[in-house]
Each structure stands twice: as C-alpha cells, then as structure tokens.
Design a protein that fits this description.
This protein has one domain: Hypothetical upf0131 protein ytfp, CATH 3.10.490. Helix content is about 25%, strand content about 40%. It contains 3 helices and 6 strands. Strands 1, 2, 3, 4, 5 and 6 form a 6-stranded antiparallel beta sheet that branches. β4 and β5 form a beta hairpin.
Length: about 120
C-alpha cells in the first residue's frame, strides 16, 4: 500500500483521532470513542487532485470496505476530525473497524507500531 499511496498522495505526517484501537491479530482496528483521552495514532496523506477515485478504490479493497454495502464490510470509510502533529484539527477520511470489539485486545497506547515493537520485545 505504501507504493499505491506514494503514487496518489503525499505523506504529511502523523496524526491522531479520538478513538480506541484493537489488535485483530495481523492488523489493527479502530473505533470511535467519546472519551477525549482515547487516541489512535495514524499517518495523514494529502491526496493528489484527480486521483481520489483510483486511490479510494484501491484502499477500499485493501481495507475490506464496501461503500455499496457498508453493513457487511469489515471496515467503513468515514470523515473524521484528525489532529496532525503540530497542526490544527482538520477533516480527513479514515477507516473504522465495523465489527464488535468486546473480546478483542485493546491497544491502550493507540499506536499500533509501538504495540508491535513491545510485543516483539516480549517474545
């Protein structure tokens, strides 16, 4: 996906949004939260004008998102307020996990990369 993003978008940097992050095994899943202390860390990209359709079609496939039938999809793509590091809040597209989280391990830090590092250090 890094190659696809590099072709259609420019990386701005890290950003976070109000949510909770869960470990799904091979990848994470984020859901929104009402608690202001819940944060999920991610990367923010600026999509090149005119490339939105191709990029979102590819990302939707990768993320298991079906805009035509969101109730059956593993993820949904939604607009959300994100906070770039060192910048003002803005609206961006994000992917949210679209399944129950009750039995999943929560990643309290909200940072999946840090979670992977700490998990690998324990093994």
């Amino acid at each position: 996906m890094a190659k696809v993003l590099g072709t259609h978008a420019a990386r701005i940097g890290r950003a976070n949004f109000r949510g909770r992050l869960f470990d799904l095994g091979d990848y994470p899943g984020a859901v929104p939260s009402q608690d202001a202390s819940d944060r999920v860390v991610g990367e923010l990209y600026r999509v090149e004008p005119g490339r939105e359709g191709a990029l979102f079609a590819e990302l939707d496939r990768y993320e298991g998102c079906d805009p035509d039938d969101p109730s059956s999809a593993e993820y949904v793509r939604v607009h959300a307020t994100v906070e770039p590091e060192g910048g003002d809040p803005l609206e961006a597209w994000i992917y949210l996990y679209n399944r129950p989280t009750g039995r999943l391990e929560r990643i309290v830090s909200g940072d999946y990369c840090a979670h992977l590092r700490s998990t690998s250090e324990k093994t």
